[in-house]
Design brief:
With about 150 residues, this protein is mostly helical. It has one domain. About 60% of the residues lie in helices and about 5% in strands. Strands 1-2 form a two-stranded antiparallel sheet. A hairpin with a 2-residue loop joins strand 1 and strand 2. The protein is globular and about 45 Å long.
């Protein structure tokens, strides 16, 4: 089995080196996007994910496509639906506007239970299926990652 952590590290280093995610081979882009998104979601829900600025400011549709690429279809739909809650186009481009919008759903820094983002956070946060699918994706694309 290919070393999962090494593949994650490689995808991160290549994304950092290249700076433009569109210049990465698809397997590296998928791994970079999912490890970043899911790591944030697992640590702070969609609040943390939407507060982040990713290398190259990829549209949220890139994350949706990445989740779809590994077979996490329901989870991809959850992200797409959460993104549609923003009352303005291209929310990935406007950190200040995102933060202002999200602020109304916070209580002491965490999403209130009645937040419209909460059902999507529940579907995604701590979802081990995503990590399993990502591991399988890395195995299927092992030739895209260094073997040493």
């Amino acid at each position: 089995m290919f070393e999962f952590d090494r593949a994650l590290d490689y995808a991160i280093s290549e994304a950092t080196r290249v700076g433009d995610l569109n210049q990465l081979p698809e397997p590296l882009r998928v791994v970079f996007l999912i490890q970043g998104a899911q790591g944030m979601i697992d640590n702070g829900g969609l609040q943390y994910f939407f507060e982040a600025e990713f290398i190259g400011l990829p549209p949220y549709s890139a994350f949706v496509e990445a989740y779809q690429s590994i077979g996490a279809i329901e989870e991809a739909r959850a992200i797409a639906k959460a993104v549609r809650l923003f009352p303005f186009a291209d929310p990935h481009r406007f950190l200040t506007r995102r933060l202002e919008f999200l602020e109304q759903f916070l209580d002491g820094g965490a999403h209130r239970p009645d937040s419209p983002f909460e059902p999507f956070t529940e579907k995604l946060c701590g979802n081990q299926k995503i990590w399993r699918l990502l591991d399988e994706f890395i195995e299927q694309h092992a030739q895209s990652f260094p073997s040493t």
